[in-house]
Amino acid sequence: MRKLLSLLLVFAVSIFLASCEGKGKIIIKEPPNADVYINGKKVGKTPIELELREGKYDITVETDPFISETKKNVQVYFDKTIVLKFNPTPKGILEVQSNPSGAEVWDNKVYLGNTPLKEKLDPGLHKILLYKGKLSAERKVNIEYRKTTKLFVNLEKAVVHVNASPSDATIQIGNVKINKFPYTLELDEGTYKVIVSKPPYTDEFTLKVKKGDEINVSYTLQPVQLPPVQAYGPIKFTHNKKYLISMGKAGIYFWNIHKFKPEISLYDPEDVRNFDKFINFNITQNDEFVVGIKPIRKLAYALKTKEKNDKIIVWDLKTTAVKFAKLYPIESKYPFFIDSNKILLIEKNGKTNTLDITSSKLEKIANIGETVTSAKKYNNFVIVGTSKGNLFKIDPSNGSLAKLASLSSKVNDIFVTKDGNVYVASDKVYILDGSLKVKTTFNTKKSPLAVAVTPSGKILAVSYGKNVEAFDLKTGKSLYKISNLPVNIISMLFRDEEILITASGIKTPYVAIWKNGHKLKKWVQTIE
Measured between alpha carbons, how far is 267 from 518 in angstroms, rounded to an integer? Predict the structure, then answer.
């Protein structure tokens, strides 16, 4: 009996204490006749007065299943009354599921709950974040009014959406080969080799993904071209074959030979407005210094005389700083380094000079006596071609001049190969051996303006002005043609056996890159 009385006493005390728990009030008047939910449970319609125990509550007011407002974590205080105002707005529904389930779901910085989740959100773009232990993911979803947006996130995998333009390309990612786009696949975390192909264009990329990623990867085939700096020739390679060098709107440019992107630019700091442009340049054998010829013809400089002047500028390529810059009353056309401090300058009229940049002294040496139309360095000599079709050899060290050959017409271009053969563009292509004697000729349809030979010496490219043709040197067979170019091609170079770079002169700036006669294109990877 005593035990029963004790239990009843404990029960009575519990009821008394429960009745004494702190409570507060919430009053909601606006909008009228709206449904009110406390922690997801409907409790009545507005206007309403609610008595709730002290604590935090999620309170929702709806005038329509898709017009509502939710206030989260509303704090109710003991013996206090809170008047809340609601302004329900249009909503859409987001349903989220995940693998593994139970992941936290956040709308940017607002916690929505754990998966599986169904939540009403404002229409528009939302950044949804999911977390489960060390796993995480981010997704962007577009919520639409009165519509349900379903989202499934595999936190253990990466989702990759792949697209390609043109759409008839083939893409291989790891062991998966794709030829229909758009295409979506799931990948394990890691780095994948990607091969994109549309013959004759094939490129390789790497794609790194981690668990929970969702990325869009697109591959677009685009023509490879130098950026719009009005590049023009003559063009050259650095001796280490790292850069393609051209002239352009503001100076002399060094392009990455593989990516064809500018990495170094040399300009005249005294002519920042670029009144006058460079007409030629050259580089030392060790790629340390660059010399440029800049004819001064306009009002870039305050000259006391009206005679024509050339500005000779020398840069240190490592720092791009100007080492030497001075005006001379000459009309030079071709510069060559004798050594790092001495330069050979060949004038258009055939006069030749040596310039000592330590003393600024210009000294006249040989005079060819004919209009010079082409010149190339050959070992320690310079081979010069003239408008009369004559070939000369100049020794810059002593100024000696020797005639090599008399061709049938004007010398348009001279190309020296790595193995010491010399190709001369005249009425046809003349080939000189190591002794600088004509050993053979290569007949062409027209008089070529420019020639180039592949590094292997197997392919010869010939410019007929606005048309270019490539030949097999052994058989004489035509390999491909490039026709109807917008300008005359006066300078060409092969990067390798397939890639040919063509360039025009200063009056019609144009540089193009070709692969086996087709405009070079590359696949560009874009990851979002």
Answer: 33
Domain boundary among 107, 136, 154: 154
- In the predicted structure, residue 156 carries a pLDDT above the cut 60: yes
Strands 158-165 and 214-223: parallel
Write the CATH number for 31: 2.60.40.1120
What global pTM score does this model have? Answer: 0.69
Say if residues 429 and 448 touch (Cβ distance below 8 Å). Answer: yes
Which of 475, 474, 485, 476 lies closest to 517 in space, CA to CA? 485
CB 369 within 8 A of CB 385: no
Shared domain check, 138 and 128: yes
Q: Is the confidence at residue 14, as pLDDT, over 50? A: no
Residue type, 217: V
Domain end among 89, 123, 139? 89
Q: Tell whether the model's pLDDT for residue 298 goes beyond 80.
A: no
Looking at the DSSP bridge assignments, the partners of residue 125 are 142
Q: Classify 471 in phi/psi space as left (phi over 0), alpha (psi -120 to 50) or beta.
A: beta
In a domain, 357, yes or no: no
By the 10 Å C-beta count (0-12 exposed, 13-18 middle, 19+ buried), 379 is classed as: exposed
Q: Is the peptide bond before 116 cis (omega within 30 degrees of 0)?
A: yes
Q: How many other CB atoms are found less than 10 A from the CB of residue 519?
A: 12
Question: Does a structural domain hold residue 42?
Answer: yes
List the structure tokens of 103. 């992941």
Q: What is residue 182's DSSP assignment?
A: S
Contact 27, 49 (CB under 8 A): yes
Q: Cα(289)–Cα(250) distance, rounded to whole angstroms?
A: 19
In which domain, by residue range, is 134 found?
91-154
Q: How far apart are CA 278 and CA 251, in angstroms?
A: 7
